[in-house]
Amino acid sequence: MTSGDDVFTTRTGPASPAAPPDSPHTPARASGRETARLAARIVAPTLAGGVIIRRRTGMALAERYQVDRRAIALLGELRGEHGPGPLRLDVAGRRFAVLLHPEDAGRVLAGTPDPYTPATREKRAALEQFQPHGVLISTEEERGGRDERRAFNEAVLEYGKQTHSLAPALVRTVREEAGKLLGAATAGDGEIDWRRFHTAWNRTVRRIVLGDAARDDTALTAMLDRLRSAGNWSFAAPRRTALRDRFERRLRAHLDRAEPGSLAAALSRTPAAPGTDPAGQVPHWLFAFDAAGIAAFRTLALLSTHGRQRDQVRGELAVTDLSAPHLLPYTRACVLDTVRLWPTTPFLLRESVRETRWGADTLPAGTGFLIYAPLFHRDEALPYADRLTPEIWLDGTARHTEALLPFSAGPAGCPGEDLVLLATSTALAALLERHDYLPERPARLRPDRPLPRTLDHFSLRLAALPR
């Protein structure tokens, strides 16, 4: 979802010492001109938009110039010229390979953490600003021989359970905050924009993760946002050590309270092996929930213009007691397809820890592998590439389509997928139960036209209309 790499993703598991099967696709080398074009059309716009925390100006420009459309076109052109194998390029003394075939993307993600670690040099430099012991950037030695940090995250977040044991408290929290958001909107100008939605979402997230007493601790979120802003610059930014120390002290005060019904309470009662650093895992949860908010707001905007899908959601809500936890499969599928359309984490990064075989060639240890998710999500061969199609997540189509990665894939992902889908679907249910929405610019999301390849969530404005 945003956020540097695999946010709230798929089931983790023990690392295997054996590499995945060799790819039949032999790498090709990009020319200097092609490397410059890739940097200008893909890397620079991604950095401008913000990798760790989104930048308002960068996202506005990205939508204006439809940078994802241009990037996908360029990668398609290069694939046609060089073939489906990885495209090798050297940048600033580093070796990279851009993956152009969905099977290769799946191979690399499945081969994590050996031979393809998620703890790339660039990612570690960025995320160490606020989560130096986070599982996503932990080396094999730091994770522990049995992957203790990952096992701890899975235990607290209850991966594999579509309804978390804290679901009753979560549903109550989400519905309360959604109600307050709607109440403030209808008492004012009737509008919900990103600022208002994001403020309400942050309150919701602080309550889910840290408890009700953290609801109004905007200073904690502001500190994290400043650290994430520094993380946007990766190696180029100095370490904000003093700020991180203040953030960690404030965070630990909430965690020490272990308020019942919160993830902090679940964390306090979950056994942790030495070196796990339980508190050090929490910044990533807060960070990743931000991407979930972007996905939820975009989904709400889509449903404001897509009447058929909105009616399907409302049909699901009409036969459900929304005060209690429910799966809401169609609503969840709408969130999944929104993230397919606009991945909150467009680049997935891996780095080889040893030499790997690719067709008739090998790539050396230390090669950085770049997976640009929009290339596969918006492949023109997919009949639903530019349309909202939640059904693919319900009828098996998505499961049998290579490299659809709305929440990434493979054993390197954060195990909160079920929790975030529960939170976002519950929020959408609360917002759609008794209100309609009218977007300020409905033409940009018309269902009878291909949806834009880039969507700036900062610019979305919705008029909330009681039904």
From TrEMBL:
Q: Where is the composition biased (Polar residues)?
A: 1-13
Coiled-coil-forming residues are none
Q: Where is this region: Disordered?
A: 1-34
Q: Which InterPro entries match?
A: Cyt_P450, Cyt_P450_E_grp-I, Cyt_P450_sf, Cytochrome_P450_monoxygenase
- SUPFAM superfamilies from the xrefs? Cytochrome P450
What family, per the record?
A: Belongs to the cytochrome P450 family.
Protein known as: Cytochrome P450
